[in-house]
UniProtKB/TrEMBL annotation:
A Gene Ontology BP annotation from the UniProt entry: DNA damage response
InterPro entries: 26kDa_periplasmic_antigen, SIMPL/DUF541, UCP029033
Source species, domain of life: Bacteria
Residue runs in coiled coils: none
Stored Pfam families: SIMPL
Start and end residues of each stretch annotated as Disordered: 101-122
PANTHER family: SLR1258 PROTEIN
Protein name as it appears in the record: SIMPL domain-containing protein
């Protein structure tokens, strides 16, 4: 009986030790996973910005005009005279003939009718035309645009006049601006790490934002970009987003 009791005591002790071992190893495993997860999330996300003030190097100005009448010959003659006046305006402004080109011409015919749908009077004929200036002399174009009222004085029946300025040198700026944006992002990460008592490690992920060309000095340039804007004075901007590991 004594031997049997001793055997049971030994067995119970072994079970207790085994259970304690499982508990300890489970805690160690759980703590290790927790620390691993904490380490995995020791990152910082920062943004780097680079900007350049630029002046557009291409101006595109489209001048639309038209004339309405009942005789096609006289309507066409009036439009031709207006076209000559537009070209003369550009010539006097200092632009070369190869910078000026016809871009559009259209013709419409409409028969006026009474309330019963019966034809009334002669047909209404409209001839519309458009001439475009495309020049690298951007500031000259800007100056000429401020004097477009002279076209009205020359009997040009303006139906539209729109000038657009485009900066085409973006590719030449990209490498330098991306490098600067990345450097600024690194500086932000180092400042954050210093304040947190950590050190900046390797780049975990990086994303280069798109390049935008917008207004400078608050001028209206809502559509600046590849299609151009209403101001020749523009600003190129890029933002990069980088995730750094923290040591």
């Amino acid at each position: 009986m004594i031997q049997l009791a001793q055997g049971r005591a030994v067995l119970l002790g072994a079970v207790a030790i085994f259970a304690l071992g499982l508990t300890t190893s489970g805690y160690a495993l759980g703590d290790g996973l927790r620390r691993s997860k904490m380490t995995e999330h020791r990152t910082v996300t920062v943004r780097g910005v680079s900007e350049r003030n630029v002046t557009a190097n291409l101006a595109t100005w489209s001048v639309g005009f038209s004339h309405e009448g009942s005789d096609l010959s006289s309507v066409q003659q009036s439009v031709d005279e207006q076209a000559r006046a537009v070209r003369l305006f550009f010539q006097r402004a200092g632009f070369q003939p190869d910078e000026v080109a016809d871009t559009d011409v259209s013709f419409s015919r409409e028969q006026p009718k009474d309330n019963d749908g019966h034809p009334v009077g002669p047909q209404k004929l409209v001839v519309s035309r458009s001439i475009q200036l495309r020049t690298r002399d951007v500031l000259r174009a800007r100056d000429a645009y401020t004097r477009q009222a002279d076209l009205l004085r020359a009997n040009v029946e303006l139906s539209g006049s729109n000038i657009s300025y485009t900066f085409t040198g973006l590719n030449g700026l990209k490498p330098e601006m991306i490098a600067e944006a990345n450097q600024n992002a690194r500086k932000s990460a180092e400042q954050f790490a210093h304040d947190s008592g950590a050190a900046v490690g390797k780049i975990k992920t990086a994303s280069q934002g798109y390049f935008s060309v917008g207004a400078r000095d608050g001028e209206d340039c809502d559509n600046c970009g590849s299609s151009g804007g209403s101001s020749p004075f523009q600003k190129v901007r890029v933002v990069t987003t980088i995730d750094y590991d923290l040591g």
